[in-house]
Amino acid sequence: MAVRYACRHCETEIGSLPFESAKETINLLQKLDEAEEERYLTFGEDGEVTVRCICEQCEQSLRRFPNYYTFNKWLQ
Ligand SMILES: [Zn+2]
After folding, report:
1. How would you classify the pairing of strands 13-18 and 41-43?
2. Around ion ligand 1, which residues have CB less than 5 A away?
């Protein structure tokens, strides 16, 4: 079982961590309310968790073009 990290803007897979190594993340995730959970997490059939975060590339774009964020949300 693993925790995967994927960019929620461009769907790029950022990486994955074995469940045991992702304890810090999991602790954080348990503090999310249901709406946030729905927004940031995807649960796979095999119990795998995908955390929808942001990749370096999108983060840079966001910083350079704040409007890009709105634009990207549109595409989803
Ligand atoms: Zn991205």
Report:
1. unpaired
2. 7, 9-10, 12, 55, 58
